[in-house]
From TrEMBL:
Belongs to the major royal jelly protein family. It is found in: Secreted. Residues 1-18 form the signal peptide. The lineage of its organism: Eukaryota, Metazoa, Ecdysozoa, Arthropoda, Hexapoda. This is Yellow-b.
């Protein structure tokens, strides 16, 4: 009996010391760019084409050695809105952003319009193409927005050449439209589909690579929930009425269609639909019931970006009011509070998780950017404000409700863990080697020792 109590106690200690399942790969106080020369940088600052505090990283994607980062043109002074850093260069944890594919693609043309205007989120597909969903608006936070039509810009990641630029037809873009999130169904490289969420005027614009055509699908599940529009992040209270936002595509099902998991930003609910119903507008219109409500994340659990890891089938999503990233196994029958796992939660480091991806080597990536503070107040330029986190998916989900390890392995892991923890305690008492439990306080060791003595 006492032995079991000890085991349980050890387990609790272990979990509480190893809650942070992701490592910080990069962190920035402010963003900076790799200009061609120091003079060019100074000139950009002097002319106002680079205003450091107006640059906010919004989306991320990983491909090969490159980590892509978008910097929307919400305010003036964004020199390049699509950039990357070299993952191989580990000389700094605050690398300068390199414009993609070149500086030229970001310089204003005679029409005041760069090739890439203002993307929020992007997707590298398995066919080595980078899909850039361009929102098309400049300066919309400064009340003097210049609007260009939204588009999908597609680059060849092997050659960095522009493959295609598809501008959304006028009748698919409404007065209040805002295109921030994209999912790409790349099961077949020739018959690829992209799904772009309209958070301003609820809809999904579906683009067919094969047909070079798009259509607009509407459904009431895309709408914001009026009871979920209040947000509170780090003491900033605000109301957002953003519609469909998080888009996560599963691996293909037996019928070769994927499932699109989606949620509005102003909502506690998660929904799903087979892409069979999105690929043809009239089929979508005729099958309203094909769109399903999965369930609720619970109060205060509004979510921005989400992503499905096709291999483990785990849906990852942010919880913006809770400064957290959570997960749910799509093989679960029920979508409820109790079968969601918590990957990372931190009131300093994870303020506003803004994008989530799993790369092709099975690593989870998260970007946090403190956006509400930036929008409604001011970021402290002496503090780390933007962070990129990563960890192998299996590590990130281990010991959470999303753990995919088979049952007998879990028991074995548990036994190992107890052994390891015991070892760690021994190490702590007789400190010679440092292990994972950096936050494993001496007090808990003392408590534990007295607990063991007590029995
Ligand atoms: C990164 O740094 C480590 C040492 O800290 C080194 O072993 C490794 O080779 C570096 N990686 C690359 C790709 O340069
Ligand atoms: C928009 O307004 C901001 C701040 O008021 C100003 O700095 C910027 O130059 C303006 N942009 C344009 C295109 O007028
Ligand atoms: C696709 O359609 C766009 C219209 O937005 C057109 O400009 C472009 O040339 C087309 N591309 C191809 C490859 O057909
Ligand atoms: C902001 O909202 C939180 C909870 O939603 C509440 O506790 C707090 O009092 C609010 N703060 C202000 C300044 O209204
Ligand atoms: C799914 O795609 C595979 C490969 O293209 C094909 O062999 C199979 O018949 C398809 N299955 C269905 C149900 O269409
Ligand atoms: C969409 O589905 C309808 C049947 O509901 C069919 O008649 C039509 O040809 C399909 N459209 C396309 C573009 O495949
Ligand atoms: C326990 O430690 C061993 C080696 O130190 C390691 O291989 C194993 O993964 C650890 N197990 C757990 C569950 O942490």
């Amino acid at each position: 009996m006492g032995g079991i109590k000890t085991l349980v106690f050890l387990h609790l200690v272990y979990i509480s010391t190893c809650m942070e399942q992701l490592d910080i790969i990069y962190e920035w106080k402010q963003l900076d760019f790799q200009f061609n020369t120091p003079e060019a940088r100074q000139q950009a600052i002097d002319s106002g084409t680079f205003i450091p505090e107006n640059n906010m990283p919004m989306g991320l994607e990983i491909h090969g050695d490159r980590l892509f980062i978008t910097v929307p043109r919400w305010r003036a002074g964004v020199p390049a809105s699509l950039t990357f850093v070299n993952l191989k260069d580990n000389s700094t944890k605050s690398p300068k952003l390199i414009p993609y594919p070149s500086w030229a693609s970001h310089s204003l043309g005679s029409d005041g319009k760069p090739e890439i205007v203002s993307p929020f989120r992007i997707r590298a597909d398995k066919c080595n193409r980078l899909w850039v969903l361009d929102n098309g608006k400049i300066g919309n936070l400064e009340g003097n927005a210049t609007k260009f039509p939204p588009s999908i810009i597609i680059y060849d990641l092997k050659t960095d050449m522009l493959l295609r630029k598809y501008t959304f037809p006028e009748d698919q873009v409404k007065e209040d439209s805002g295109f921030a999130n994209i999912a790409v169904e790349d099961t077949d490289c020739d018959k690829t589909y992209a799904y772009a969420g309209d958070l301003g005027k609820p809809a999904i614009v579906v683009y067919s690579w094969e047909k070079n055509e798009s259509w607009r699908i509407e459904h009431h599940f895309f709408h914001p929930d009026p009871l979920a529009c209040d947000f509170s992040v780090k003491g900033h209270n605000f109301s957002w009425t953003d519609a469909i936002f998080g888009l996560g595509l599963s691996a293909p099902n037996a019928d070769n269609f994927s499932t699109l998991y989606f949620h509005p930003m102003a909502s506690y609910n998660e929904f799903a639909v087979s892409t069979e119903y999105l690929r043809n507008q009239s089929i979508a219109d005729e099958n309203f019931n094909a769109f399903r409500l999965l369930g609720s994340r619970g109060p205060n659990a509004q979510s921005s970006a989400s992503f499905v890891d096709p291999r483990t089938g785990v849906l990852f999503y942010s919880l913006v009011n809770l400064n957290a990233v959570a997960c749910w196994r799509t093989t679960n029958k029920e979508y409820s509070m109790k079968n969601q796992g918590r990957i990372y939660m931190d009131d300093v480091k994870m303020i506003y998780p803004t994008d989530i991806k799993v790369d092709y080597d099975e690593n989870l990536w998260v970007l946090s950017n403190r956006m509400p503070i930036w929008m409604y107040s001011k970021l402290d330029p002496n503090d780390f404000n933007f962070r990129v986190f990563s960890a192998p998916v299996l590590q990130a989900i281990s010991h959470t409700a999303c753990d995919v390890t088979p049952r007998h392995d879990i028991l074995e892991k548990f036994a190992n863990k107890i052994k390891n923890v015991t070892q760690k305690i021994a190490n702590k008492i007789n400190p010679s080697s440092a292990v994972c439990a950096s936050s494993f306080s001496f007090i808990s060791v003392l408590l534990l020792s007295s607990f063991i003595l007590f029995m």
